[in-house]
Design goal:
The complex is a heterodimer.
Chain A: E1 5-14, E2 17-27, E3 32-36, H1 43-50, E4 60-68, E5 71-72, H2 79-85, E6 86-89, H3 101-105, H4 107-110, H5 117-130, H6 134-137, H7 151-164, E7 169-173, H8 181-194, E8 199-203, H9 207-213, E9 216-221, E10 224-230, H10 231-236, H11 241-247
Parallel strand pairs in A: 3-8, 3-9, 6-7, 7-8
Antiparallel strand pairs in A: 1-2, 1-4, 4-5, 9-10
Helix pairs in contact in A: 5-7, 7-8
Chain B: H1 6-48, H2 54-58, H3 72-103, H4 108-122, H5 125-140, H6 145-169, H7 173-181, H8 186-214, H9 218-221, H10 241-249, H11 254-283
Helix pairs in contact in B: 1-11, 3-4, 3-6, 3-8, 3-10, 4-6, 5-6, 6-8, 7-8, 8-11, 10-11
Classes of the chains: A alpha/beta, B mainly alpha.
């Protein structure tokens, strides 16, 4: 089951650049939340702070509290533990090129020392089914390289890989921006199904996509969160002038 | 736009000529590289093959004037020294390369190691031999296979370190992030993802280093020394193919010259076979459709 996320006074820096400035918001459990905003506004940095990937960059740092359920992820846990609970899907599909489809999907388990064959097989099959890829790969999933799939299939494999470690939250950083329209709509269908079991945070440049998949939407601009509201309200009656300018295409 | 004007047709013809000239030059350069290589191999076979027989691989060196004899002790000695050098040089080289690529970026220690490796790469092999003589042979008061192995290992390390670093640098950052994002610790990500992805290039680097030291003579002159008799002890002087070839080629006896040619041929073939074996072995289990 998913878990809600409470973000308070989150600030993030790359070197001396203040990328995120005092972000406060509540992301409800088992819903999809979309983050929109022009390039460089901080939305990717924001999701990378939710699983502490931000700090893998040596010049980056972050302050503030992020509570996942009862756990303050910056105070109460190590980054490795947090990343097991918070799955991430990246902008470009990033399969492990040396691994088969099967090994890619169970890599999160195998690389963490898990080796029970039967459970691995079951998990891989279940995850691939959840990611709507099972029927396309089941015949040679243990022999075929993950990198040999098409871009859209690779991205669904990466989603399966993230689901296989049974996370509570799924972060998606523009998961469909490198894909064609057919693959994009498959990913969107998937998000729609997955949000009953996971809390999903999706960064997107595509405002129709936000409108299609997310209950709530946050609008970021220049490192600040300008507005956070139900998606319906953001797109029909935004309370901030800048939100309105952005979604009507006046800038960005 | 009309592409069929005289001017554009003329430009097109010129471009085609340029294209052919450059392609021709590239082929010529390739031939220039391959001709000496093929000539050496051909000459080795021509001179060495006739002296090759079973005795060459099973008999000990013959005394001057005697006919026959072989290089059994030198072949085994080379094998021992090279195995020793690989066992020491490859792990150290790869570990240093991993440090440079994954942990030492922009750090003082990292830069110092990188600089040292580059300098070491340019140190003449005879200097490595003398250094190992001073560091190992002198204190121990005797020449040894072990000292020879260390000397060759020292020559392997910089090549392997720098290749490992460069191959790891070609692994896309996105792949590391994928592993980290699954809650895989950094050390595990480095071992099971970065190194594994870069392994074909790293193996090639190790093979290059191996092939380079396999024919080295100078560092062994001061360390392994050579041995007329059968020895497999790491603590005793030991013979090696390059040492034996050097000795025989310098001798005044025609019979020894012939055997030296055969030894050179065996050395080259040994290197080619071991490199090929590693390649075949390393390419097993590669998945279909990968890149």
């Amino acid at each position: 089951m998913g878990v809600g996320i409470q973000v308070e006074h989150l600030n993030a820096w790359y070197g001396t650049t203040h990328t995120l400035q005092d972000i406060n918001l509540h992301i409800p459990a088992n819903h999809a939340t979309a983050l929109i905003g022009p390039s460089g506004c901080g939305k990717s940095t924001f999701v990378r702070c939710l699983n502490r990937m931000h700090e893998t960059n040596p010049i980056a740092r972050a302050t503030g509290t992020v509570k996942m359920g009862d756990v303050d992820i910056y105070a109460d846990a190590s980054p490795v533990e947090i990343r097991r609970r918070v799955g991430m899907v990246f902008q470009r599909p990033n399969p492990f090129p040396t691994m088969s489809i099967y090994d890619n999907v169970v890599s999160g388990l195998k690389l963490n020392g898990f080796s029970n064959r039967k459970i691995l097989d079951e998990t891989a099959e279940r995850s691939l089914k959840s990611a709507a890829l099972w029927d396309e790969v089941k015949d040679d999933w243990k022999k075929k390289s993950g990198a040999s799939l098409s871009g859209g299939q690779q991205q669904r494999m990466c989603i399966a890989r993230a689901l296989a470690v049974d996370p509570e939250v799924l972060l998606m950083d523009e998961p469909a921006s490198a894909l064609d329209p057919v693959s994009t709509s498959k990913i969107e269908d998937l998000i729609f199904q997955l949000k009953s079991q996971y809390t999903i945070v999706i960064v997107t440049h595509n405002m129709q996509q936000a409108a299609r998949v997310a209950e709530n939407t946050g609008f970021f601009l220049n490192g600040k969160m300008v507005e956070f509201n139900s998606t319906h309200k953001i797109f029909t009656n935004p309370s901030d002038k800048r939100t309105e300018d952005y979604i009507t295409g006046r800038f960005g | 736009m009309d592409f069929n004007t005289p001017r554009l047709r003329f430009n097109f013809a010129i471009r085609k000529i340029k294209n052919n000239v450059v392609a021709g030059l590239a082929m010529l350069a390739t031939a220039l590289v391959l001709v000496p290589l093929a000539a050496i191999l051909f000459y080795l076979f021509y001179k060495g093959f006739s002296s090759l027989n079973l005795a060459f691989f099973t008999k000990m060196p013959a005394a001057p004037g005697e006919v026959g004899g072989g290089m059994a002790n030198s072949i085994v000695g080379s094998g021992i020294i090279l195995a020793l050098a690989s066992l020491m040089g490859i792990p150290v080289g790869i570990a240093a390369g991993v440090y440079l690529a994954e942990f030492g970026r922009g750090k003082m220690l990292g830069n110092a190691i990188r600089f040292t490796a580059d300098v070491l790469n340019g140190v003449p092999s005879i200097v490595v031999g003398i250094s190992m003589y001073a560091l190992i042979v002198k204190p121990q008061l005797h020449f040894s296979a072990f000292a020879g192995g260390v000397a060759l290992a020292v020559m392997m390390v910089p090549t392997i370190t720098r290749t490992t670093e460069e191959m790891l640098a070609t692994v896309p950052h996105a792949i590391r992030e994928a592993a980290l994002g699954l809650g895989v610790p950094k050390w595990r990500t480095t071992l099971s993802v970065s190194l594994r992805t870069a392994s074909p290039g790293i193996i090639t680097g190790c093979m290059l280093a191996f092939a380079r030291v396999a024919g080295e003579t100078a560092p062994l002159l001061f360390t392994a020394l050579g041995n007329e008799f059968w020895s497999t002890s790491l603590n005793q002087p030991i013979d090696a193919l390059p040492l034996r070839i050097y000795k025989y080629a310098n001798s005044p006896y025609d019979e020894w010259h012939r055997v030296a040619w055969a030894g050179s041929l065996v050395l080259i073939v040994m290197i080619m076979v071991s490199v090929t074996l590693v390649r075949v072995f390393a390419s097993r289990g590669v998945l279909k459709g990968g890149n």
